[in-house]
Amino acid sequence: MHPGVFEYLKLKLYMRKSRKRRILFIILAIPILAVFVFSILFLTAEDPPIASINMSQAAISQAKEAEAAQYVPRLLVAAETVNQMAVDEWKYQNELISFNRDFSKMRALAQEATEKANFARESAIHVKDSLQTSLTGRLATVKNKLDHFNVNYAHLPLRSTTRQNFTSAKLRYTESKEAFSRGAYKDVGLNLDVASKLISKSVSEAHAYLSDYFRDLGKWQQWADETIGWTRRNNGYAIIIDKFAHKCYVYADGRVKKEFKAELGPHWIGTKQYRGDKATPEGRYHITAKKSKKQTKYYKALLINYPNDEDKARYEKNVKNGKIPRRGIGNLIEIHGDGGKGINWTDGCVALHNDDIDRLYEMVRVGTPVTIVGSLRSLKEINGF
Fold first, then answer.
1. Taking a C-beta distance cutoff of 8 angstroms, is the pair 376, 242 a contact?
2. Which end of the chain has fewer beta carbons closer than 10 Å to its terminal beta carbon, N or C?
3. Considering the domain boundaries, does residue 276 fall inside one?
4. In the 8-state DSSP scheme, what is residue 95?
5. Alpha helices in 214-340 (DSSP H)
6. How far is CA 170 from the centre of its chain?
């Protein structure tokens, strides 16, 4: 073989082997390169921003703990809505190839949710604090009205609706106070609104009722002045019964010598109209008999001359006008013992404690003036308005 041919074949063989090595190298390099590229992409791919979601969810939990759902529900819903959008965006990105993911939108949404949740929490705290301050004042106002009614009106023979409103107001106030102690301020407000309206209505009705009754104040004061004047001129004792104060005063020489607690008929507002109305009369009378223990079932008694001429004339006029039934005007009105029960219980008489009727019995005689008035003080002096 020619040497040149041999060299040619040798070169050709070498080139074939070299090409095979290159192909083999490429075949081996491609997977390695692929692994390298994917490793680079994986290492440089964006990590899921779990911290952002955790932060927004923690902020929402704090807002709920601050009772945002109760006091600022719209703000809390807004925060929860944006947070859900962030979670949805997270799920969407997780479905993509890792190196193709972009969590920037999710981070922005999570940040927005966090800010809204923090605002909801701060707003709830502010609203709650404001409510607490406001309700503290309103509770005190309603309590003052209830106390005022209890002192000035509860003992009166008021209309049943007025009393029912007062009772309902007390119940609502109690529920409000209990809710306040639990921090349930929304419940406080609702019950307190009702309590305030009911007690205001009761006070208004009671005041109107008394205002009508106190139209006779001038007449009562005139009777009392004349009776007190009589004690100065005649150097004797006189009795004045103040129905509203539930007091029996003994005057001598124009001054109070003794003062006793008195109990009356259940329907003592207004004068006695007819037999059986359980009202204590109003007018100027005198003692007609002194009854010892054997003469009365009420320990001791001082009988007065009810009905007098004015009582009889009023009775006949009211019967004629149809204002009252013709049941008889009644009689046997006394200042007697067996009092001290703490309620108005008589059939129209004035009851004193036995120790007090003993003292009064010794001070007076048949003919002693007895003046019974609705009140010696004005309504303004009594309740402040």
1. yes
2. N
3. yes
4. T
5. 217-234, 309-320
6. 8
Q: Where are the beta strands (DSSP E) in 225-271?
A: 237-242, 247-252, 255-261
Beta bridge partners of residue 370, listed in sequence order = 239, 285
Residue 122 has, within 13 A of its CA and on its CB side, a CA count of 6
Alpha carbon distances (Å) from 205 to 30, 153, 166, 375: 99, 10, 11, 19
CATH code where residue 228 lies: 2.40.440.10
Token pair of 46, please? 């964006």
Residues 89 and 106: beta-carbon distance below 8 Å: yes
User: What distances in angstroms separate CA 159 from CA 23, 94, 208, 311, one per listed residue?
Assistant: 113, 74, 12, 25
Q: List the domain range (segments joined by +) for residue 174.
A: 144-214
pTM over 0.85: no
Q: What is the pLDDT of residues 184-209, one digit of tens each?
A: 887 888 889 999 999 999 988 988 88
List of residues 6+ apart from 218 with CB closer than 8 A: none
Inside any domain, residue 59: yes
Q: Are residues 24 and 170 in the same domain?
A: no
Name the domain count of the chain.
3
Is 218 within 8 Å of 232 (Cβ atoms)?
no
pLDDT digits (tens, 9 = 90+) for 9-33: 666 666 666 666 666 666 765 666 5
Shortest CA distance to 275 belongs to which of 249, 221, 312, 310? 312
Distance of CA 188 to the CA centre of its chain: 7
| pLDDT (0 to 100) of residue 11 | 60
Bridge pairing between strands 369-373 and 334-336:
unpaired
Q: Which residues contact 209 (CB under 8 A, 6 or more apart)?
A: 156, 158, 159, 162, 269
3-state percent helix, strand, coil for the chain, nearest multiple of 5: 60, 10, 25
Compute the distance between CA of residue 137 and CA of residue 228 in angstroms, rounded to an integer.
47
Is 135 within the bounds of a domain?
no
Whether residues 237 and 206 share a domain: the answer is: no
What stretch of H or E contains 1? Answer: none
Q: Is 342 left (phi over 0), alpha (psi -120 to 50) or beta?
A: left
Within 8 A by CB and 6+ apart from 41, the residues are 98, 99
Amino acid at 317: K
Report the distance separating Cα 272 and Cα 328, nearest Å: 11
